[in-house]
């Protein structure tokens, strides 16, 4: 589950272990804060006592921060860790009491669980009430229930999973969601495009549906046209992207779109494709694919073979190759 992967990730960060967290290496500093909150002078008020405590085995916050930032340090973060992980580690040094125990749930704004074998998005996520970004790419998620998603969520990335049905995701979707990433999944029409409307995603600005199995361009556009705030749309990799008028029809049908796949839509593109939305008869259920072979490796180059002399009795060797494409 996502919760299990989350706790495993936190243990990997070592937020309660040296040089982070609360321990003998930071005890006096934490006691000083606590005493000041209670109206007592505290250890931090006496420089002499503070220096004495440092001599007894404590490390200054500056020194411990250096251990986190130095890539040669055994406590440095692995290269694949996110900026959020770095922020948590720094907070665990400078203000460990703020992320101690369940308090960490109120601090997290972004959670990235990528390629961890996650299959279930469980209700444990609801503890992260302030979560705004959830990245769950490259896992094994086939269904996701929106009732287990934090309500403050603005970014949900589910790229490279096994999602084939959006019904559970659209039961109680996060109302403020601005980006929904569903690229490289198993979605197809006509059953799934009905969930891609403003009724479910009123604030959606960016939508990635690339490399699924959508084939009905007209049906999909009729649903997407209700998304009044949609500005970025990615559909490449779907069978419908092979339709010759695919790009022009979308540009003319969704006048507020700013980016489609890999192109930015400017006034010139609008003018170029103007009127295509009123000609659906141009959309055919067939496509043309042009394949160009740029380079072939691992076979002899005929142009490099030595030319035979005129009148030579040596046998002539010919080469032929077959290239097969599977669609």
Fraction in helix: 10-25%
Query: Rounded to an integer, what's the Rg over CA atoms?
Result: 29 Å
Low-confidence stretches: 32-46, 51-56
The CATH architecture term of the largest domain is Alpha-Beta Horseshoe
Number of helices: 8
> Regarding CATH, which class of the largest domain?
Alpha Beta
Counting structural domains, the number is 2
Describe it for me?
This protein has two domains: 69 residues, no CATH class; 174 residues, Leucine-rich repeat, LRR (right-handed beta-alpha superhelix), CATH 3.80.10. The chain has an eight-stranded mixed sheet with strand order 1-2-3-4-5-6-7-8, with helices on one face. The protein is an alpha/beta fold. The chain is flat and about 90 Å long. It has eight helices and eight strands; from the N terminus they run αααααβββββαβαββα. α4 runs antiparallel to α5.
Task: Explain the layout of strands and helices.
Layout: H1 2-13, H2 27-37, H3 47-55, H4 61-69, H5 83-94, E1 110-112, E2 133-135, E3 155-157, E4 179-181, E5 206-208, H6 217-224, E6 232-234, H7 246-253, E7 259-260, E8 263-264, H8 267-272
Parallel strand pairs: 1-2, 2-3, 3-4, 4-5, 5-6, 6-7
Antiparallel strand pairs: 7-8
Helix pairs in contact: 4-5
């Amino acid at each position: 589950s996502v919760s299990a992967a989350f706790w495993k990730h936190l243990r990997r960060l070592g937020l309660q272990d040296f040089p982070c967290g609360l321990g003998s290496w930071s005890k006096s500093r934490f006691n000083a804060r606590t005493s000041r909150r209670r109206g007592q002078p505290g250890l931090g008020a006496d420089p002499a006592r503070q220096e004495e405590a440092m001599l007894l085995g404590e490390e200054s916050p500056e020194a411990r921060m250096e251990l986190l930032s130095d890539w040669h340090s055994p406590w440095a973060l692995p290269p694949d860790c996110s900026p959020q992980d770095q922020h948590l580690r720094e907070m665990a040094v400078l203000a460990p009491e703020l992320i101690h125990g369940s308090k960490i749930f109120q601090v997290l704004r972004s959670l990235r669980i990528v390629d961890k074998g996650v299959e279930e998005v469980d209700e444990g996520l609801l503890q992260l009430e302030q979560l705004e970004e959830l990245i769950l790419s490259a896992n094994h998620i086939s269904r996701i229930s929106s009732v287990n998603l934090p309500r403050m969520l603005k970014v949900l990335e589910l790229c490279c999973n096994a999602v084939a049905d959006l019904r559970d995701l659209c039961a109680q979707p996060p109302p403020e969601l601005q980006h929904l990433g569903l690229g490289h999944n198993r979605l197809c029409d006509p059953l799934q495009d009905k969930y891609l409307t403003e009724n479910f995603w009123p604030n959606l600005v960016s939508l990635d549906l690339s490399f699924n199995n959508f084939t009905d361009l007209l049906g999909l556009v009729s649903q997407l046209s209700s998304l009044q705030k949609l500005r970025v749309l990615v559909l490449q990799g779907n069978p419908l992207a092979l339709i010759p008028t695919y790009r022009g029809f979308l540009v003319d049908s969704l006048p507020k779109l700013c980016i489609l796949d890999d192109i930015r839509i400017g006034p010139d593109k609008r003018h170029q494709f103007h009127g295509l939305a009123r000609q659906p008869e141009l959309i055919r259920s067939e496509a043309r694919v042009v394949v160009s072979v740029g380079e072939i490796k691992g076979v002899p180059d005929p142009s490099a073979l030595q030319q035979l002399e005129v009148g030579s009795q040596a046998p002539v060797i010919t080469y032929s190759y077959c290239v097969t494409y599977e669609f």
